[in-house]
Write a structure and sequence with these properties.
The chain is an alpha/beta fold and 171 residues long. The chain has 6 helices and 5 strands, in the order βαβαβαββααα. The longest helix is centred in the first third of the chain and has 16 residues. It starts with a strand and ends with a helix.
Length: 171
């Protein structure tokens, strides 16, 4: 599993020790970690390729973890981009828990401290394992069944595949 971690560049002076704590916690799990924090050649925000590299990291990952203790517009955009691309995103903050503000199956959040960060990271990564789709299953439907599936998926604002998975998961 490939995890992308990002955090506020302007918050580095104040929160770097916490960014390092999150990175160390992620490294203790069995995942591949990508992060601007680990890449010495990563462009700074003042350089044009910076935001493209962030987007590329989100697109190429299975899930995203971000520290938003230093809140900013760019991090909100990156969280939304992750959710829009159906990447599970864990939004961490030392100050508040955003899970009560945003309701989306791909959005997860927690208020953390140095005492609970490892448990939060471990639980998030373990929960992702049930969301990894590694088995393909094909079958045939009648035109009527396919139309009903499309109608119900649209009513729930989901793709047909997501709607079918939600029906199976609800059992």
């Amino acid at each position: 599993m490939n995890i992308f971690f990002t955090a506020s560049y302007t918050g580095k002076a104040k929160y770097q020790k916490y960014y390092n704590l999150i990175i160390d916690s992620i490294k203790k799990t069995d995942v591949t970690l990508q992060s601007p924090e680990l890449d010495k050649n990563f462009p700074t925000p003042s350089e044009l390729p910076h935001y493209q590299k962030i987007k590329d990291g989100i697109y190429s990952s299975d899930a995203v973890i971000m520290d938003v203790s230093d809140e900013g517009f760019q991090l909100g955009y990156e969280a939304a981009l992750s959710v829009q691309n159906k990447k599970h995103v864990l939004v961490l903050s030392l100050l508040r828990d955003f899970s009560q503000k945003i309701d989306n199956r791909y959005f997860h959040a927690a208020k953390y401290s140095d005492m609970n960060i490892e448990d939060i990271i471990f639980d998030f990564i373990n929960s992702l394992k049930k969301h990894q789709f590694d088995q393909r299953f094909n079958f045939f439907l009648s035109t009527k069944q396919l139309n009903t599936l499309a109608l119900n998926a649209t009513k729930h604002n989901q793709t047909k595949s997501d709607y079918l998975r939600s029906l199976i998961d609800s059992q």
